[in-house]
Recover the amino acids of this structure.
C-alpha cells in the first residue's frame, strides 16, 4: 500500500522526536510530520536548565537539533505538511495533509500546545510590530528598550529574566498580587535589578500606528485605567504575553476524549480510547508539561505502538 507506515507521528516537538527515535530504532517504518519547523515550544526558549544533562550553553534550539539528528540517524523520515484531516477508527489510519495522504498502522499525536492570546484590541494587529510571543526569537529587537511581560507563571517570569539581558527594563504585569511562578524562579526575578512589577492589572488594549506605542492597563481592584506611553526617545516598547497555552487538539476532538481544557485523555501507556492511536507530550492531560515528561511520553508511546502492531497485524 502506497505511503503505508508502521507509525506516523504528528508533531516534531520533543515528544514527537522521542517517539520517532524509539520507533525507528525498533525498525518500524516511521514518519514524523510537522507543519512548520521541528521543535515545538522548546525552540522558543533559550535556557533549558531543568532537562537532566542539559547544562552549560544548551539552548532549546540546540537540544532540538540534536533530537532531530538522532531520530533521523535511526531512519525516521520527516516531512513538512499541515495535517487537515484524520481518519483514525479503522485498522489502517489515514492522515491527510495539505500536500499528501499518509497511511499508518499507528498514529502518535504529539501536536503540543500553542500560546494563549490576551484577546484584547490591538494585539493581533501589532503582533510582530512590538508584540511577540517568543523571547528567544525577538529579544534582540528590544535591545536597550523597555519591555512589558504579561503573566505571572513560570514562563512569564523566566522569559522576563531572559529579556533583561537585552532590554533596559522589563516590567511584569500580573493580574494578581502574587506570582504563580515557582519559588526558585520568583526569587531570582525579585533580585534582578532590571525587573519591575505591576500587580493586580490586566491589559485592556494595545495601541500604535504600525508599531506598539501605548499599553492600556486596568487595575482589577480599583478599576483604574493606566495608559503607558512609549518613552519619547524610543518611540516604542515591547510587549510579550505569556499567559498559558492552548492544546492543539481541534482535529481530534470528534474522535478522542478530552478534558475540559481540550487536552487528550490517555492511559499511562499513552493509549487513547481508539486502538492504534496514542498521544504524547503537552497535548495530553497530565500534571507536568516539561521536556523531560514529553520525551518520556514519546518513548512510552513508541514502545506501546510496537506491541500494538505485533498483536494486531502480525498474528
Ligand atoms: P501558566 O502556569 O498557566 O501561567 C499562566 C499565567 O498567565 C498565570 O500567571 C495566569 O494568571 C496568567 N494569565 C492567564 N490568562 C491571563 C489573561 N487573560 N490575562 C492576564 N494574565 C493571564 O502557564 P505557563 O507559565 O506558560 O506554564 C505552563 C506550564 O509549563 C506550567 O505547568 C509551568 O510550570 C511549566 N513551565 C515550567 C518551567 C520550568 O520549570 N522552568 C518553565 C516554563 C513553564 P493567574 O496566576 O492569576 O492564573
Amino acid at each position: 500500500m502506497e505511503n503505508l507506515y508502521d507509525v506516523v507521528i504528528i508533531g516534531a516537538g520533543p515528544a514527537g522526536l522521542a517517539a520517532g527515535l524509539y520507533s525507528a530504532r525498533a525498525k518500524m517504518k516511521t514518519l514524523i510530520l510537522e507543519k512548520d519547523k521541528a521543535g515545538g515550544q522548546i525552540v522558543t526558549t533559550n535556557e533549558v536548565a531543568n532537562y537532566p544533562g542539559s547544562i552549560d550553553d544548551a539552548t532549546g534550539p540546540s537540544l532540538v537539533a540534536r533530537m532531530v539528528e538522532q531520530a533521523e540517524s535511526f531512519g525516521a523520515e520527516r516531512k513538512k505538511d499541515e495535517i487537515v484531516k484524520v481518519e483514525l477508527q479503522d485498522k489502517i489510519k489515514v492522515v491527510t495533509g495539505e500536500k499528501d495522504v499518509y497511511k499508518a498502522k499507528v498514529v502518535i499525536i504529539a501536536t503540543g500546545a500553542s500560546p494563549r492570546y490576551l484577546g484584547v484590541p490591538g494585539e493581533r494587529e501589532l503582533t510582530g510590530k512590538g508584540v511577540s510571543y517568543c523571547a528567544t526569537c525577538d529579544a534582540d529587537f528590544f535591545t536597550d528598550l523597555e519591555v512589558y511581560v504579561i503573566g505571572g507563571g513560570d514562563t512569564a517570569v523566566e522569559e522576563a529574566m531572559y529579556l533583561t539581558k537585552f532590554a533596559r527594563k522589563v516590567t511584569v504585569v500580573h493580574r494578581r498580587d502574587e506570582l504563580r511562578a515557582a519559588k526558585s524562579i520568583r526569587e531570582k526575578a525579585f533580585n534582578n535589578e532590571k525587573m519591575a512589577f505591576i500587580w493586580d492589572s490586566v491589559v485592556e488594549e494595545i495601541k500604535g500606528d504600525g508599531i506598539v506605542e501605548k499599553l492600556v492597563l486596568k487595575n482589577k481592584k480599583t478599576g483604574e485605567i493606566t495608559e503607558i506611553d512609549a518613552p519619547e526617545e524610543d518611540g516604542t516598547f515591547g510587549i510579550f504575553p505569556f499567559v498559558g497555552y492552548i492544546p492543539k487538539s481541534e482535529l481530534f476532538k470528534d474522535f478522542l476524549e478530552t478534558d475540559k481544557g481540550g487536552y487528550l485523555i490517555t492511559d499511562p501507556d499513552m493509549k487513547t480510547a481508539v486502538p492504534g492511536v496514542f498521544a504524547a507530550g503537552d497535548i495530553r492531560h497530565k500534571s507536568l508539561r516539561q521536556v523531560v515528561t514529553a520525551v518520556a511520553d514519546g518513548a512510552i508511546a513508541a514502545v506501546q505502538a510496537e506491541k500494538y502492531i505485533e498483536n494486531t497485524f502480525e498474528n
